[in-house]
Amino acid sequence: MPSLYVIVPIVFGVVLILWAVTAYNGLVGLRNKVKNAWAQIDVQLKRRHDLIPNLVETVKGYAGHEKDTLQNVVQARANAVSAQGVGSQSAAEGELSSALGRLMMVVEQYPDLKANQNFLALQEELTSTENKIGFSRQFYNDSVMTFNTKVQTVPTNIVAGMFRFGEEEFFELESRAEREAPKVSFS
After folding, report:
1. Which CATH number belongs to the domain containing residue 128 in this structure?
2. Distance (Å) of CA 156 to CA 20, 110, 141, 167
3. This prediction's pTM
4. First-to-last CA distance in the chain?
């Protein structure tokens, strides 16, 4: 019969291995949740980016002489589409939000445009998309917080360090102006 000096280290080793496997699998699951949350933001941003050219074209028909504002929106959209990584995507989306806000302020000066059914439909879609982007950002940041907490806390930080699980970046907007959604008015 094996002695207690042999059984205890074996049981301890098995428990340690089981814990490490569980911790690793938990980290993988959380990392995948973060990736999924980012994909959901990406879907909503793509939807937003697709709406903008139609919105610009509709406004252009009524407010063609507001060329600078329209060009700023188009340029901000191009920057947002080409941005890579969470930090640059956050900055580019903030710039786009600001440009859209300025566009909506221009729209206020054109009563015929505000009454145009196509414009109203695009405006409603943009509002809906902005709300979905907000919810997606919140879910992403919640997922990042959970993952980062797991990566940073004892004892899972040991497994995270061994398998090079690094912290994820939050989706944050740079300035107070960027934090505000574009103002959309139906009046």
Report:
1. 1.20.1440.20
2. 8, 58, 20, 13
3. 0.82
4. 87
C-alpha 17: how far from chain center: 36
Of the chain, the percentage scoring pLDDT greater than 70 comes to 91
Cα 184 from chain centre:
21
pLDDT, position 187: 46
Q: Domain limits at 108?
A: 4-179
Residue 136 placed within a domain: yes
124 in a structural domain: yes
**CA pair distance 24, 47, nearest whole angstrom:** 35
Report the pLDDT value the prediction gives residue 184, as an integer from 0 to 100.
53
174 membership: H or E segment, kind and range:
none
Our count of domains for the chain comes to: 1
Whole-angstrom Cα distance, residue 13 to residue 18? 9
- Is residue 174 pLDDT above 80, yes or no? no
Tell me the Ramachandran region of residue 184: left when phi exceeds 0, alpha when psi lies from -120 to 50, beta otherwise.
Answer: beta
> What token pair was written down for 160?
């995270």
